Amino acid sequence: MLNEEKWTLEEANKIGVMEQLKNGTITAQQAAEQLDLSKRQILRIKKRFRRSGAKAIRHGNRGRSPKNKIPAEVKSKALGVFSEWRKRCDEAINSAHFCDILGDHSIKVSRQTTWRWLRERGAISSPRRRIKHRLRRERRSRRGELLFLDGSPHRWFGEAFPKSTLVLCSDDATTEALWGVFVSAEDRNSCFEVAYEVMSRLGIPSSFYLDRASQFVTTRHGGLHYNQTALPTHWLKAMKQLGVRCIFADSPQARGRGERINGTFQRRLVSEFQFHQIHDQRKATDYLNQKFIPAYNKKFAVSPAESQPAWRPISKGCDLRTILCAKSTREVSKDNTVLYENARYQLLPHPGWSTFADRPIEIQEWYNGTIHFSHSRVGLIRFKQLPKTKGQYYDKIAATLG
């Protein structure tokens, strides 16, 4: 009987014990002790063994396909999708991201299944992570109570393209990504641009959680961030005017939730850019805010502890562009011109004002790089830039010397 079919060693041992029990060589209690089963189980097996022979030892589902088995054609289609992504992308795709991609192709499988398929093909590995002991910081309870704003330099468009930086703003209470832009390097204007887009859409937040980059905090002493008595940056002046608190972290780990969001974007966005053949910052910014962020928030965002948001409405008539900008003061010359950054600007007549000569005027450099002039009692003033002359260099020296 044992030679007709292939049996495991455990099954062969069980058949031998049941043959002894059937022949009366051993008792049911002895058979139970040998097979490490209860006497009641042995009696049930003995009954089936007398009726069906050795086949009774095997489980009833042996050789049957499970009802929840994924059809081979579904797996083949899924791996075909993966192959298409790998042809266009240098960056690896993790199992969670691949699971979302399959959802767009009407293939619904679990993340564990996609992980197993990719592992079988050697497309992914299980990285070893060193675990550190850290104390958990609880999320803020309301939307807009605490925002992360950070730049993430990376080869977003693949190894063949230079590095770009994603400046991204996200919410601590919900993990929602709010807005982002791709730039060559994180700077003051890119941070102002992201803040403007977020505030103009949602309102003014309560606070920002930031690193100690130079656009946020004035640094001295060879780059060490000790000196807090230095003059405030343009960012801090703007936040003070809006009543927004700025909290500065001493390490990336302190802003771990925001750093993890950046990591998720790096693991997913690179392959999506390559698949859709997006290689420039403008198209990448459009794709990010119109398609990727809504899909990201739908999957990863959580509900806040309190439904009432912390966003404050913007005052009527307030133009955020005049606040979220770099500001400096100059005195207007007798001919109603202003010298700024080696360029001379002619202020045009304003209704009710015959001249701005000898008056202090505020120069605003907006996040888009444009220059604007403002007076405390008039607001924005119309102007035109004058062509450079041979004496422009000496005008600059005179302005420097005061």
Number of helices: 11
| Helix and strand composition category | alpha+beta
Mean pLDDT: 84
Largest beta sheet, briefly?
5 strands, mixed
Number of strands: 12
Tag the structure with descriptive keywords.
four-stranded antiparallel β-sheet, five-stranded mixed β-sheet, 402 residues, elongated, alpha+beta, 12 strands
Give an overview of the whole structure:
Helix content is 37%, strand content 16%. By secondary structure, the protein is an alpha+beta fold. The strands form three sheets. Strands 3-2-1-4-5 form a five-stranded mixed beta sheet, sandwiched between helices. A four-stranded antiparallel beta sheet has the order 6-9-10-11, with no helix packed on it. A three-stranded antiparallel beta sheet has the order 7-8-12, covered by helices on one side. Helix 1 (9-23) runs antiparallel to helix 2 (28-35), helix 2 crosses helix 3 and helix 5 (95-104) packs across helix 6 (111-120). The radius of gyration is 34 Å and the shape is elongated. The N and C termini lie far apart (109 Å).
What's the SSE blueprint?
Blueprint: H1 9-23, H2 28-35, H3 39-52, H4 72-88, H5 95-104, H6 111-120, E1 147-154, E2 164-171, E3 177-183, H7 188-202, E4 207-210, H8 234-242, E5 245-248, H9 256-275, H10 281-300, E6 326-331, E7 337-340, E8 343-347, E9 360-365, E10 371-375, E11 379-381, E12 383-385, H11 392-401
Parallel strand pairs: 1-4, 4-5
Antiparallel strand pairs: 1-2, 2-3, 6-9, 7-8, 8-12, 9-10, 10-11
Helix pairs in contact: 1-2, 2-3, 5-6
